[in-house]
């Protein structure tokens, strides 16, 4: 394992890593070694999006909520239609008949009686039912907006988690390179102390820096596992993550010429959460009307047709009978007093309506905040990426100067290693800035409610399976995140 780690970190087996750090180094990098040695299972944002849409519980719950709201609409509409029912019974009877006259002997009989009845009720005026149907329609629209909001959030979280994993991969690779460089610095300091060219303080300092780099490497690997776990929250368990490479020459969305006010207006007008809150307010207003209608009279057409049959008459010995009866009429119901219950329901509905109004403002403010965070986040990421370009150029020049100085005896190996690490750090920061640009732009579109699955799938064009040879500053060693 130690030799494999040395190859992983581009170190010779005799570097002293196993001799000095022993099992601790192997323990720190064991998971990273497994990640790099495992089989490859390629993923793309498109495939992960399909997994997220078919497995993410919150999104699936929002879809089910739409179906439930539509079913409630059918229920509310059904209350406006005729209500038809049929009832019936059959009874076995035994009757003993005794008179108070001694001249008439007692009598008794056993017989069957049965009844069937068909009843119809057609509401003519139930204002609560009319308002309830309108309310149910508003709830359906609200649920559809909530589903759209859940989809926007899912897409945004998926892209964020994906680029977080990419950034964590870059950090792990950088940490491994840092360990490699500081291992060489420690070797130089140790040899210098053995030859009397440097003292023990220099060796101890190099050792402490190497220990810190090893700790940073463990932290980076742990962070990568957490980022993977965040991605699996959306797409479910993954066997392997084979991370692609972002094209160095890929053109990203540019917001430098656009206005923040235009995006804020679009967000307030199109954000699904704001639209859902508006529909919730409409539904709350309908609930107030529905509860107030509890004080109103109701009018129904009622009709029934039934048959009563009995095997014998009202007295023993009498013939049985069949009675058919039909009834049609109007039924008026006027509520007078319900103990204050209905008035309390109205008060509750009014309070819920006020809450819904406040929820609109809360959703609007949250949308404005999300849009501003994405907007300024993009500009900050753009500035970091541009600074990274200059940092890469400066680090490349410093690295060339350090190498030349080493050849002329003016620079040491430590100076060269330091310049190389500055170059690698500039590469990492440049890539992170570009990742954040994409994530911020996606979040901005989600805040405006215009992010689509096609937008996320189109991001696959930014990546390639192999390093982009046209941009050497974009290259990095292969990296895969495996589950521990």
CATH architecture of the domain at 39-66 and 137-281 and 356-477: Up-down Bundle
* Major β-sheet strand ordering: 1-2-5-6
Q: Give me the Rg, rounded.
A: 39 Å
The outline comes out as elongated
Number of helices: 12
CATH fold naming of the domain at 39-66 and 137-281 and 356-477:
Outer membrane efflux proteins (OEP)
Distance between the termini: 17 Å
Query: Mean pLDDT, as a whole number?
Result: 84
Describe the structure.
- With 484 residues, the protein is an alpha+beta fold.
- The protein has a domain at 39-66 and 137-281 and 356-477: Outer membrane efflux proteins (OEP), CATH 1.20.1600.10.
- Helix content is 63%, strand content 15%.
- The chain contains twelve helices and eight strands.
- The chain has helices spanning 2-8, 17-21, 23-37, 45-55, 57-78, 127-194, 200-235, 260-270, 272-292, 341-407, 413-448, 453-458, and strands at residues 83-97, 107-125, 240-242, 245-246, 298-312, 319-333, 463-464, 480-482.
- It has a four-stranded antiparallel β-sheet with strand order 1-2-5-6, with no helix packed on it. Strands 3-8 form a two-stranded antiparallel ribbon.
- Strand 5 (298-312) and strand 6 (319-333) form a beta hairpin.
- Helix 1 (2-8) crosses helix 3 (23-37), helix 9 (272-292) runs antiparallel to helix 10 and helix 10 (341-407) runs antiparallel to helix 11 (413-448).
- The chain is elongated and about 145 Å long.
- The protein starts with a helix and ends with a strand.
């Amino acid at each position: 394992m130690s030799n494999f780690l040395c190859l992983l970190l581009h170190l010779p087996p005799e570097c002293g890593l196993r001799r000095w750090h022993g099992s601790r180094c192997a323990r720190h990098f064991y998971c990273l070694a497994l990640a790099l040695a495992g089989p490859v299972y390629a993923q793309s944002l498109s495939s992960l999006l399909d997994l997220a849409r078919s497995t993410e519980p919150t999104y699936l719950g929002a879809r089910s909520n739409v179906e439930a709201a539509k079913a409630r609409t059918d229920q509310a509409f059904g209350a406006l239609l005729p209500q038809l029912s049929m009832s019936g019974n059959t009874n076995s009877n035994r009757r003993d008949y005794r008179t108070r006259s001694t001249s008439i002997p007692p009598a008794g009989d056993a017989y069957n009686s049965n009844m069937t009845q068909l009843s119809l009720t057609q509401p003519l005026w139930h204002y609560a039912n009319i308002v309830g149907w309108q309310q149910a329609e508003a709830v359906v629209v609200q649920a559809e907006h909530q589903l759209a909001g859940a989809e926007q959030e899912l897409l945004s979280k998926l892209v964020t988690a994906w680029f977080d994993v990419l950034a964590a991969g870059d950090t792990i690779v950088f940490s491994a390179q840092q360990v490699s460089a500081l291992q060489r610095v420690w070797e130089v300091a140790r040899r210098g102390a053995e030859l009397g060219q440097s003292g023990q303080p220099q060796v101890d300092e190099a050792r402490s820096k190497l220990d810190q780099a090893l700790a940073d490497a463990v932290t980076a690997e742990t962070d990568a596992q957490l980022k993977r776990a965040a991605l699996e929250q959306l797409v479910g368990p993954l066997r392997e993550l084979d991370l692609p490479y972002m094209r160095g020459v890929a053109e990203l969305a540019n917001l430098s010429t656009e206005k923040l006010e235009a995006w804020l207006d679009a967000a307030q007008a199109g954000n699904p959460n704001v639209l859902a809150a508006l529909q919730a307010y409409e539904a709350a207003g309908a609930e107030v009307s529905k509860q107030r209608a509890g004080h109103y009279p109701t009018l129904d057409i009622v009709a029934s047709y039934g048959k009563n049959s009995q095997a014998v008459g009202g007295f023993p010995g009498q013939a049985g009978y069949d009675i058919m009866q039909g009834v049609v009429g109007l039924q008026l119901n006027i509520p007078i007093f319900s103990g204050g219950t209905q008035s309390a329901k109205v008060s509750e509905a009014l309070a819920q309506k006020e809450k819904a109004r406040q929820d609109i403002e809360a959703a609007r403010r949250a949308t404005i905040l999300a849009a501003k965070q994405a907007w300024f986040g993009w500009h900050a990421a753009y500035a970091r990426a541009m600074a990274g370009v200059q940092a890469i150029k400066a680090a490349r020049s410093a690295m060339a100067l350090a190498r030349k100085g080493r050849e002329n005896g003016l620079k040491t190996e430590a100076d060269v290693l330091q310049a190389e690490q500055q170059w690698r750090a500039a590469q990492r920061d440049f890539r992170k800035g570009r990742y954040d640009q994409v994530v911020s732009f996606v979040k901005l579109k989600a805040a405006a409610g215009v992010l689509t699955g096609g937008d996320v799938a189109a991001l696959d064009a930014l990546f390639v399976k192999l390093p982009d040879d046209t941009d050497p500053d974009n290259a990095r060693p292969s990296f895969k995140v495996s589950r521990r």
